[in-house]
Amino acid sequence: MGKIKIVIVDDSSFSIAFIKNILEENGYEVVGEAGNLEEVKEVIREKKPTLVTMDMTLPGTDGLECTRAIHEIDETIKVIVVSSMMDEEIIKEARDNKVSAYIQKPVDADELITAINRVMASDELYELLQQEHFAVFKEGLMDGLNRMTKTSLTYKEEYASDKEYESDGMTIIIGIIGKFSGRMLIDLSKETSHNLATALLRREPKNTDELLAALGEFSNIVSGNACSILNRKNKALGLRVAPPSILHGDSLFISTPNFRTTTAIAETNFGDILLNVGFKRGEEKWI
């Protein structure tokens, strides 16, 4: 975890001193303080902190207005509320304003440090997932094909896209849950579907249901093995796969999710297979 620079926002000199002492004793750098909205804007622009501890009750403003002002300057700055006020309504408002954690005064040192570690580690964990997941899923498809059909594949194209695309005839979607949620999608033509299912079953499929079951299980194995590899890289990911959803037919259009995905085209003995995978941050879990 890189150096974390912290600004303390509170109108109480006692609270500032108390929180600052906890943070500095635990190796964090306190780079500034603020007690009202204008001071908040000034110190954020000048000091460019990584994280802000935020009191909810401030002269002429409140912690939520200050949080919005911080994120207008830099939306990547994490805000942890440290306040004597804590009820369901205000917690909901804090979530809606992209507060990352909520600590009630009097401040417990262990609780505050744990909250900071979890909030900041989440960024690193998501970055790890974004950097490594697609290579792992590509390897998962290659390994699954090799183990289940004794054939290999070659990736001939890779790209990111946010546009709707037309299916070749059959799409298998695997939902993924855990610390971050996402999906794996495999798309292939009717001919490729039949050829692959025949290789998986080692005979012609008896009917459409058997073909769909074979392709669904193949996709489930590919995604499950890939998630297992990622979990071994960092068990905090806790990735799990949902049962496959299979769409098939003519003129089938697949919409893009509201998060970034990457696509690769695999050339196989059975025909081309499209692999598409992506993850989103989702809502952070508070402690």
From TrEMBL:
Gene3D superfamilies: 3.40.50.2300, CheC-like
Keyword Transmembrane (UniProt): no
Keyword Phosphoprotein recorded: yes
PANTHER family according to UniProt: PROTEIN PILG, STRESS RESPONSE REGULATOR PROTEIN 1
Domain Response regulatory: 5-120
Source organism of the structure: Lachnotalea glycerini
Entry protein name: Stage 0 sporulation protein A homolog
GO biological process entries: chemotaxis; phosphorelay signal transduction system
Highest taxon in the source lineage: Bacteria
Modified residues annotated as 4-aspartylphosphate in this record: D55
Keyword annotations: Chemotaxis, Phosphoprotein, Two-component regulatory system
